[in-house]
Amino acid sequence: MPTFITLANWTDQGIKNLKESPSRLDAFKQAAQKLGGEVKGFYLVTGKYDMVLITEAPDGERWRSCLLMIGSQGGVRTETLRAFPEGAYREIIAALP
Question: Rounded to 5, what percent of the chain is helix, strand, coil?
Answer without folding.
Answer: 45, 30, 25
